[in-house]
Amino acid sequence: MRHSLALTLTLAGLLSAAPKEPAVPMVAVLPLTSATLDKGALDGLSNSLGSELFQTGKFRVMERSQMDQILKEQGFQQSGACDADQCALEMGKLLSVDQLVLGSVGKVGNTYTLNARLVKVGTGEVVRSTSRNSDAAMDALLTVVVPDVAKDLAQVSKPSRWGWWVAGGALVAGSATAAVLLMNGSSSSTPAATVPVTPGTSSETKIQVTLP
């Protein structure tokens, strides 16, 4: 009985002493602002940014409908886009989220720019910020720029081609080494045979090969 109690206390101590995984922060993506794009396009980009942030596995993302419902219940009156820091932090506190994502879309010539920043609700500190450009069609904002911005905010890097090349080379080298070892192992247990070769100009040549 004493041994069981001691074992239980020991396991409990180990579990309590084990390092806990950091909690995944809850974020709310506020509607992007722009002097160029209409509300429908901005809503689509904002929703896509939320989805991409969630896909990184670094955030829990509050649904837009849930955000609107909470703000409505709290009687929060939002006139226009809430991009000012004080307004954004007030929204974040009402939503009870850890961090906010604020951003804007601009256009100079034929180049679109998406600026975004991740802000702590409790302190107003800017955790990370990023800016991505695209001189392609506006569709590239949705298919290329938004995913890249999400990875920047989550600090998720793409694997380089060089890394994949090295990994592939190591795999090929490993296979070749295994093949050589297999051949060497089989040569020690199989008889050798002498195979005649068509005579040359001066003398007959013979080679020795190992049969499988």
Order of helices and strands: HEEHEHHEEEHHEE
Identify low-pLDDT runs: 160-212
Task: Give the percentage of residues in beta strands.
Answer: 15-25%
Number of strands: 8
Largest sheet, in brief, is: 6 strands, mixed
Over the alpha carbons, how many angstroms does the gyration radius reach? 32 Å
| CATH homologous superfamily (4th level) name of the domain at 22-154 | ABC-type transport auxiliary lipoprotein component
The top level CATH class name of the domain at 22-154: Alpha Beta
Helix count, DSSP H or I runs of 4 or more residues: 6
- Gap from first CA to last CA: 65 Å
The CATH architecture term of the domain at 22-154 is 3-Layer(aba) Sandwich
What do the pLDDT scores average to? Answer: 74
Helix content: 40-55%
Structural class: alpha/beta
CATH third-level topology of the domain at 22-154:
Rossmann fold
Shape: globular
Please describe what this structure looks like.
- The protein is α/β, with parallel strands linked by helices and 212 residues long.
- The chain has a domain at 22-154: Rossmann fold, CATH 3.40.50.
- It has six helices and eight strands; from the N terminus they run H-E-E-H-E-H-H-E-E-E-H-H-E-E.
- The chain has helices at 2-17, 39-55, 64-73, 85-95, 139-154, 161-187; strands at residues 26-29, 33-34, 60-61, 99-108, 111-120, 126-134, 192-196, 206-210.
- The strands form two sheets. Strands 1, 2, 3, 4, 5 and 6 form a six-stranded mixed beta sheet that branches. It has a two-stranded antiparallel sheet with strand order 7-8.
- Strand 4 and strand 5 (111-120) form a beta hairpin.
- The protein is globular, with a radius of gyration of 32 Å.
- Mean pLDDT is 74; it is low at 160-212.
